[in-house]
Amino acid sequence: MLAAAVCATQAAVAAPSVATLERSHWPERIDSPVLFDVASRAHILLFARSLLASESQDEAQLTTRLGLRQINLLAINDLRQRLWQRLWANFDLAQQSCEQDASFCYAIDSESELRTQAADLGIDPESFYAGFAVPGQVFSEAYLNELLRLAAVSPQTTSEVQLLSEQEFDGNGFADRTFLLSFDGGPGPVDGTTDALTGYLRAQDLSATFFVPGQTLQARAEKTSVAQLQALYAGQCVATLGWQYVSHGQWDKWQDSVLRSIALLQADLPDSYVPWFRPPYGQRRADSGGFFAGAGLKVALWNIDSMDDDSRLTAQQAGERTLSLMLLWRRGIVVFHDTLAKAQTAVPWLMRETAQTDIAWQACADVR
């Protein structure tokens, strides 16, 4: 998703790297709420160090760093400010368990003190966590580049890194340790990956929001039946990606695309339908808030992208990336693609890895 959004407007010098991190570099299982906090603090501090270092680079250096021809420095600075606010809020939550485990705990009481600690951060070569230091920093640098690149090409190309109206949400406003699982692009072929994932979720007493293109949903109903479509999504939530999985940022028929899809969902899946629109690639018009308000729709973005749609990532890497970002942001909307086989491996792995951390997987129907 991230790469597609950028390439829509500017040619990069080379394909941007995707942040991945083998969880084996972290030396202990994250099998308790306290150990979730320890890993969370480590990720926040390393990412804060990367963010702080990026602020010393001027516009020309950032342009080269991001592999773009030109950048929107004001948008980058605005994103940095919001990132610092989230990092401090998350670190403050993560340090509440420092009495149980003092790893990566410091006397930090404000955003400015977090900046100071990030600048001074060092992981001793003899530390239990020494093996995480370099891979963790590499991951932080690569992920920061992904975010900065999205900000750099705005407002010509909108994305998930900025909310444009009160109708939009991305999961950063959820309660601590609360996550919503979401999938894009389905339904897939009969008895394919979408069927497997919805069956798995029901068996685990979990729910997710499935964002579907209207024409794909219609084709599946015509091949089977509306009743079978309803059975497919029983216990789950279904929202729209528009009629086609194409950018709605410049398309002159974007409003018709959204309204036509809503009508189909309301008619065929009334028990599963939720009034949300997810813009493909995160691209939508900057002045679209009034339309969505008038249509009674929320724009559901995301803040944790598995990148399972990137051919360079394996299913394991997509799952590991997702867990790393969950530790960093501590709440949010996770996105996978139910038409890809990777999610069938990555999602169960993610559930096993977080089973003892006391995180909450939000029931999709309860999100307002």
Automatic annotation (TrEMBL):
Write the protein's name. Polysaccharide deacetylase
Matching InterPro entries = Glyco_hydro/deAcase_b/a-brl, NODB_dom, Polysacc_deacetylase_ArnD
First and last residue of the signal peptide: none
| GO terms assigned for molecular function | hydrolase activity, acting on carbon-nitrogen (but not peptide) bonds
SUPFAM superfamilies assigned to the protein according to its UniProt record, in alphabetical order = Glycoside hydrolase/deacetylase (SSF88713)
Under Gene3D superfamilies, the record lists: Glycoside hydrolase/deacetylase
Organism of derivation: Pseudomonas rhizosphaerae
Pfam families registered for this protein in UniProt: Polysacc_deac_1
Q: Which biological process annotations from GO are given for this protein? A: carbohydrate metabolic process
Domain NodB homology, first and last residues per copy: 175-288
Note the superkingdom of the native organism. Answer: Bacteria
